[in-house]
Amino acid sequence: MVKNYSKLYQHGTLATLVPGLFEGTFPIGKLLKNGDTGIGTATGLGGEMVVLEGTPYLVKSDGKIAILPDETMVPFATVHFDNENAEKIKVNDLNEADLGEKIFHKNALENVFFAVKITGNFSHVKTRAVAAQKRPYPTLAEVADKQAIFEEDNSQGTVIGYFSPELFQGMASAGFHLHYLNDNKTMGGHLLDFTVSEGSLAIQPFASVEQHFPLEDQEFMQHNFELSKMDSEIRHSES
């Protein structure tokens, strides 16, 4: 299979999750045909997904981490083929607050999608994972207010995620959306804060984005999305 390193593939949109459309609509097996690296969630927002080297890991709210079988359905996920030959920048004592400055200081990338991958030693990592929801599903903002928090010092692992331009808020979360998984596969989740003491940073810009929609899901097809509150609820949920 020829891998396209300049294409980003996404199933569903973050805006779909805002009103509580959490039912899985696309199988992991098909998702992974479009990328070997990425992030997402599972049916009912049952955890934070991290895809590394073609393996989909799910960090659950009880702290357990599972490998998802191909038939697992996801409502929202973003993947790409990781370019191992991408330029890597050595980083020391880099924290989340300084990540944007580190990248944009030398790269005019504010108007395009790109992947972020940080590997190395982290002096501190803070993540979260939401508990699996059951019907009738709450809104995304309501779920975000009830989340499990995980912290680890002296952690070795990988940050993976994406930067999305403000222009595409709703399709994704504008700004950085990052997940983490340690090398031991014992801790991870949606990244809230980090400091990498020593590691490498790679960025992978995308020339094209393929957005896949769940055309066979009637709940999505017939839903009337309320755009007026979407921006604020996404920012609240992803912060």
From TrEMBL:
Keywords: Acetoin biosynthesis, Decarboxylase, Lyase. GO terms for molecular function: acetolactate decarboxylase activity. Pfam families: AAL_decarboxy. The keyword Protein biosynthesis does not apply. SUPFAM superfamilies: AF0104/ALDC/Ptd012-like (SSF117856). Its EC number is 4.1.1.5. Pathway: Polyol metabolism; (R,R)-butane-2,3-diol biosynthesis; (R,R)-butane-2,3-diol from pyruvate: step 2/3. It catalyses: (2S)-2-acetolactate + H(+) = (R)-acetoin + CO2. PANTHER family: ALPHA-ACETOLACTATE DECARBOXYLASE. NCBIfam families: acetolac_decarb. CDD domains: acetolactate_decarboxylase. This is Alpha-acetolactate decarboxylase. Belongs to the alpha-acetolactate decarboxylase family. It comes from Ligilactobacillus acidipiscis.
